[in-house]
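Deliverable D2.4 — example input (structure tokens):
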């Protein structure tokens, strides 16, 4: 064998080896491309599915979890649903409760999913849970969920302004008094299951819709905004003051009454804490505690300290309840933002005997509602103002 042929044989082997390697690399390369293509397809498909869920109103995080739990078809069949979105965003998500999540009404509460899980475990129905969530804050619901399952849920909470946090007091009050649910919720919300003048809120901020009564007290140094002296045309011979907003409304009412040939007069306007204290002491020494309790507010608990309440008289009669002005006021005062505060029909709510002369400025909108629905200011407050 000559060197030339040896050289060819070695060269041929090398070429074959190189060719083999080339083929192997090409094969690996193709395989990798194939894998990458599959991955890209999967990613695209995933993005497509997330986009589909996003179009239905689900967040990116919720959409990812929906796919992770293989619940896309279910979610698509339900469509947009805020609670379902919250459930898939939450670490508290429980597959067993999926159907409930889609049926319960959503509220913006931090622990809503954990609370729903607890309430389901306690045996509440989906509609019960919707009722519970509607009547409290996140904190209220969390506390309520810790209790044993309660009876009479729908009974109390069919009333819009019933509060979850007061459930135990509703139960106790209705057991003690035998009152119906509506009265129970109203009275407990107003604090009337507690002792008058003993258990009260402090009201510090002046507003035309502020509530001051035996359960809502003004601080000793409280003064109304824009306290002004009432012009002598509109009052009796004593110097009277009032909150400007109420005084201006009274003037408008006064002029309207005058057009009808009637004469209104303010017999008592703003009274400071000290003045009210003196008044109570005088009445107490003359008539005793019972009288004061039924007719006179204790200092701090009188609407007169707000500057929004006026005791109104007539220029035609010393007894206001027998005057034409009294009749006119009953029919017209709401048009100027005033309400008869202590009527015969709401004695059980206000805790005061009827006072035909005591009017309170609350603004035209509230006064009109109260007039049209024939309710007390306390009821209005419980329904619309007590947050
Ligand atoms: Zn009064």
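Example output (designed residues):
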């Amino acid at each position: 064998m000559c060197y030339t042929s040896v050289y060819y044989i070695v060269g041929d082997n090398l070429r074959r080896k190189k060719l083999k390697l080339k083929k192997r690399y090409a094969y690996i390369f193709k395989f990798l491309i194939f894998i990458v293509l599959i991955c890209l397809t999967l990613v695209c498909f995933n993005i497509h599915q997330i986009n589909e869920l996003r179009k239905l109103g689900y967040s990116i995080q919720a959409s990812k979890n929906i796919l992770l739990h293989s619940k896309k078809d279910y979610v698509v069949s339900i469509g947009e649903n805020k609670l379902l979105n919250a459930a898939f965003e939450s670490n508290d998500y429980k597959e067993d409760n999926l159907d409930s999540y889609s049926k319960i009404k959503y509220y913006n509460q931090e622990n809503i999913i954990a609370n729903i899980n607890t309430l389901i475990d306690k045996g509440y129905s989906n509609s019960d849970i919707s009722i519970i969530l509607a009547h409290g804050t996140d904190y209220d619901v969390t506390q309520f969920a810790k209790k044993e399952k309660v009876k009479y849920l729908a009974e109390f909470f069919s009333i819009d302004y019933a509060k979850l946090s007061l459930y135990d007091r509703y139960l106790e009050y209705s057991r003690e008094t035998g009152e119906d649910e509506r009265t129970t919720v109203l009275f407990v919300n107003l604090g009337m299951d507690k002792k008058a003048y003993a258990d009260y809120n402090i009201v510090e901020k002046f507003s035309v819709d502020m509530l001051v009564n035996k359960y809502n007290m003004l601080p000793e140094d409280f003064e109304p905004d824009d306290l002004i002296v009432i012009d002598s045309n509109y009052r009796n011979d004593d110097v009277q003051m009032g909150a400007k907003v109420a005084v201006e409304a009274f003037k408008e009412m006064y002029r309207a009454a005058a057009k009808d040939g009637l004469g209104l007069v303010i017999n008592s306007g703003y009274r400071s804490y000290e003045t009210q204290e003196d008044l109570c002491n005088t009445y107490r020494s003359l008539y005793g505690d019972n009288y004061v309790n039924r007719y006179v507010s204790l200092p701090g608990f009188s609407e007169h300290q707000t500057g929004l309440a006026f005791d109104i008289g007539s220029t035609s009669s010393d007894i206001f309840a027998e005057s034409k002005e009294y009749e006119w006021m009953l029919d017209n005062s709401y048009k100027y933002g005033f309400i008869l505060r202590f009527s015969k029909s709401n004695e059980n709510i206000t805790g005061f005997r009827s006072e035909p002369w005591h009017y309170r400025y609350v603004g035209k909108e509230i006064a009109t509602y109260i007039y049209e629905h024939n309710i007390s200011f306390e009821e209005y407050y419980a329904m619309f103002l007590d947050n």
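The pocket of zinc ion is lined by residues 268, 304, 309, 311, 358 (CB under 6 Å).
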